[in-house]
Amino acid sequence: QLQASGGGLVQAGGSLRLSCTASGRLFTSYVMGWFRQAPGKEREFVSAISRGRGDIAYADSVKGRFTISRDNAKNTVYLQMNGLKPEDTAVYYCAATIQYNPSRSGGDYDYWGQGTEVTVSS
């Protein structure tokens, strides 16, 4: 089970840190990802991190502004979001996959959190 938190309302240029905590003892077996879905749009990939933190992927739209990290001791993955823009407004979902490499495809993920809403005002 994945529990996401940390969303909220922030002004453009501001920052938020999302967290996603996994229950169970197999957190280190999973590649973790973040996706988002804006109103009226398709779900899109944001970022993903490998089990050992050595392989990370970002969507071009967030590269340089967002940072993904994970703390395997706490079963938690984070998404630090800086320089937020109104177009970052969306519900953000964390997800987990047993696949070896960070995947940009939502279909590759086996488990999903409930989502946390991020609203960026202009």
Structure description:
- This protein is mainly beta.
- It has no helices and 11 strands.
- The radius of gyration is 13 Å and the shape is globular.
Summary keywords:
122 residues, seven-stranded mixed beta sheet, 11 strands, mainly beta, globular, four-stranded antiparallel beta sheet
Largest sheet: 7 strands, mixed
Radius of gyration: 13 Å
| Helix-strand makeup class | mainly beta
Distance between the termini: 34 Å
Number of helices: 0
The stretches of 5 or more residues where confidence is low (pLDDT under 50) are: none
Give the integer mean of the pLDDT values: 95
| Total strands | 11
Which geometry do the CA atoms define? globular
Sketch the topology as an H/E string, one letter per element. EEEEEEEEEEE
Helix content: under 10%
Strand content: over 45%
Could you give a short description of this structure?
The protein has 122 residues and is mostly beta strands. The protein is 0% helix and 48% strand.
Question: What's the layout of helices and strands?
Answer:
Layout: E1 2-5, E2 8-11, E3 16-22, E4 31-37, E5 44-49, E6 56-58, E7 66-71, E8 76-81, E9 90-97, E10 111-112, E11 116-121
Parallel strand pairs: 2-11
Antiparallel strand pairs: 1-3, 3-8, 4-5, 4-9, 5-6, 7-8, 9-10, 9-11
